[in-house]
Amino acid sequence: MALRRPTLPKTLPQLPPSSKERLAPVLYAGGMLAIGAVMLIAKPRLGHVPNPSRSGDLPRASRWRRAAQVSRDNVQAFAPANVTDSLGRSLLIGGAALLLTRLFDEVSGEDGQ
């Protein structure tokens, strides 16, 4: 005779989150917003990216080098001038999204209400 293991129910009852768990995403979002704002305002030299066309804009003799020069000039539009600006903007967007998500979660209430 084999012993039978007890089985768990398919859905376990969930405990309501503590106030610390509910507040943590708001604190994270505030930190992200603060750090992002500081990065945008400070613009440290560490994040400055030099101009890619510093080796000259005169046409090149080789066809491959001309193609590389044209490609460099076209891709330059997408490259950030200051990496910390891009990181700061990303942190601001992420922090705002997290804060809005948490706000909408609180407004929507618990299940069945």
Write the layout of secondary structure elements.
Layout: H1 19-42, H2 63-75, H3 83-108
Helix pairs in contact: 1-3
Structural class: mainly alpha
Strand content: under 5%
Q: Tell me the span between the first and last alpha carbons.
A: 48 Å
Number of helices: 3
Task: Name the helix and strand elements from N-terminus to C-terminus, one letter apiece.
Answer: HHH
List key phrases describing it.
113 residues; mainly alpha; 3 helices; 56% helix; elongated
Describe the overall structure.
With 113 residues, the protein is mainly α. The chain has a domain at 20-46 and 82-107. The chain is 56% helix and 0% strand. It contains three helices and no strands. The chain has helices at 19-42, 63-75, 83-108. Helix 1 (19-42) packs antiparallel against helix 3. The protein is elongated and about 85 Å long. 7% of the residues are buried. The mean pLDDT is 81.
